[in-house]
Amino acid sequence: MNHPDTYKGKQVVVLGLAKSGLQVAKVLHQIGAIVKVNDKKDRDQCPEASELDSLGIPVICGGHPDDLIHAGISLVVKNPGIPYSAPPLLKAKELGIEIVTEVEIAYYLSEAPIIGITGSNGKTTTTTWVGEILHSAGLSPIVAGNIGVPLCEAVQGATEQEWMVVELSSFQLKGTEQFRPRIGCLLNIAETHLDYHGDMEDYITSKANIFVNQQEGDTAILNWDDPTCRNLAPLLKGKLFPFSMNEELQEGIFVSPPFITNTDDSLERSIIYRDENGIMKKIIPVEDIGIKGRFNVENALAACAIAISAGVSIEQLAAPLSSFQGVEHRLEFVKEIDGSPYYNNSKATNSKATIMALTSFKEPIILIAGGLDRGSDYMELLPVLKDGVKAIILFGETKEKIAKVAKLAGIKTISLVDTVEDAATTLNIAVKEAASLTQKGDIVLLSPACASWDMFTSYEVRGSIFKEAVHNLK
């Protein structure tokens, strides 16, 4: 797309409200565009509409009018979650009208350089961690994007001396054209969101958009252990900065000794940085990292690579790496009851995220899982279910599917919880069932491997209900 200034006096449709729709509509209106906002939800479900009304921005709720999109429209800015199969977007595409997400608008408006972070798992933890590291080093990070603060809001007033640290979803990146982060990071790729993207090719292409417009002098940070990420390396225009848990890299950030060559967890491992001249510097012992889980070591590697690229010295990394306590709903310790810790990992909305959580513990696990059925067969869970899961409690649309995998894994205690009364009651029943099966030293883990939308409005709501249920056990 062109710079937002070029849409002054031109008709623009913002499709979908929520925080990002509200902010992008206000920004385009301030620039002088003729903005119309549309949301298919009823008016009483669109609290943002009244603010836009007060600014003279028309808001149409309750459906998509047939005349919403026409040849006079110059630009459509869509909420990231709205599928491209939605009728207004199909019509816009037919008419050759540009369709972008709020991230594209914000990119043009930001005076601050952008750090973009994406991946199937670990985005929020890594983004938050990078913000903490940059702040600790005396830099000026502004953390925004998919993490909660719309980018169009965050970039207002940002200066060249600050860093925008931005979590980006595949939905947001799919709707970009010129978006160019100074530092781009792809954490990993797992099969997810296929109901939105249709196939893995579209999903991977959307994620790779984070690198497409980078230039020489920009930095592209890749997980060298992920084959899909590594395959993107020949396509990069920016400087490659890899990180690895499993290989001592000739240049980049890695764990030494690597995890893959020796699975002995008693080894004293450290995070190491090797620069372009081959000089190695130890950053921190792995055991000193502030949050549990091998996958969080991977997040720490990525955070180090980003921070170094942003100008943080090696000596400034250890303190924020050890003091960081993680993010809510991501392998979050809830409470210990009768010698058994309970963990909330509601953000595990795909199998890979649940695998990461399960491999973080040596103790026997009582797993609570299940949720929205997006078409996966969950067979990739089989090896980890065999290794450490003592019992499994299942609910939601996928309970039968995951139960089949659990049976193949040889798990003897498989409990299916029917939906009763409401979602909260159902999850409470699951927690009580898990507690009844727990012996001292067992881990009780909510790690659903599924999105929440079959029963809950968000993974945050699901995790909060789980935590409340745990606190009510005793």
Number of helices: 17
Instruction: Count up the domains.
Output: 3
Shape category: globular
CATH class of the largest domain: Alpha Beta
Strand sequence of the main sheet, in spatial order? Answer: 7-8-6-9-10-11-12-13-14
Query: In angstroms, what is the radius of gyration?
Result: 23 Å
SSE-based structural type = alpha/beta
Just name the CATH architecture of the largest domain: 3-Layer(aba) Sandwich
Overall description:
This protein is 33% helix and 21% strand. With 474 residues, the protein is of the alpha/beta class. It has three domains: 4-101, Rossmann fold (3-Layer(aba) Sandwich); 110-323, Mur-like, catalytic domain (UDP-N-acetylmuramoyl-L-alanine:D-glutamate ligase, 3-Layer(aba) Sandwich); 332-471, Mur ligase, C-terminal domain (Protein-Tyrosine Phosphatase, Chain A). The model has no long low-confidence stretch (mean pLDDT 95).
